[in-house]
Amino acid sequence: MGNRLTQIATRTGDDGSTGLGDNTRVPKDHLRVQAMGDVDELNSQIGVLLCEPMPGPVRELLVDVQHQLFNLGGELSMPGYTLLKDEALLQLDQALAAHNAALPRLAEFILPAGTRAASLAHVCRTVARRAERAVVALGAAEAINASLRHYLNRLSDLLFVLARVLNRIDGGDDVYWKSERLTRAAAEDAQDAKASPT
Questions:
Q1: In whole angstroms, how far apart are CA 187 and each of 34, 110, 184, 197?
Q2: What does R_g of the chain's alpha carbons equal in angstroms?
Q3: Phi, psi dihedrals of residue 110, rounded to the nearest 5°
Q4: What is the mean pLDDT of residues 88-104?
Q5: CB–CB of 2/20 below 8 Å?
Q6: Which of the listed ranges 41-55, 107-121, 172-186 does the model predict with the highest average pLDDT?
Q7: What region does 80 belong to: left with phi over 0, alpha with psi -120 to 50, or beta?
Q8: Please, where are the H alpha helices in 30-179?
Q9: Are 75 and 38 in contact (CB under 8 A)?
Q10: Residues 125, 126, 127, 132: what is their CA dihedral angle, to the nearest 10 degrees?
Q11: By three-state DSSP, how is residue 187 classified?
């Protein structure tokens, strides 16, 4: 395992390469480095989201997710090591089930909008999907633990659900896409209501 950081500006990356945790060097556009960068960006975006007001349990969950993403990134940086534990995925599954059960069923697709906190959660969700794609690409080229892919997939689902939770603070709601189907269904419902006897 590599040494912990003792200085930031080492200048060793000036040649376009970077060091991994096992002391090997790879180009900065290597699939592994791209995946590490996307996971780092996701963690940073969650840090921005945590600047917003939110319920205590959601905050605690997201703080723990940041720690797990650090483990995930560490595992990416050290080929052959396992840092992300099974319990991390179980925590996401449990949180996803609990928060989703408290939400109304979706009537239509929703826009990544609403409150600032919800919108930031949607940004985190899209970055999680990009990080997942990067990990999938890496996994097609090199052997990596499937749990990394599973965690990011589940996390993006959870962030979607948390965006809906955050939109409901102070009585808000989802921002629905105004699809033609939904508009047509509403018009038909209104027509039926007029036609039915009172």
A1: 48, 20, 5, 18
A2: 21
A3: -115, 155
A4: 96
A5: yes
A6: 41-55
A7: left
A8: 31-49, 56-77, 86-101, 116-141, 146-167
A9: no
A10: 90
A11: helix
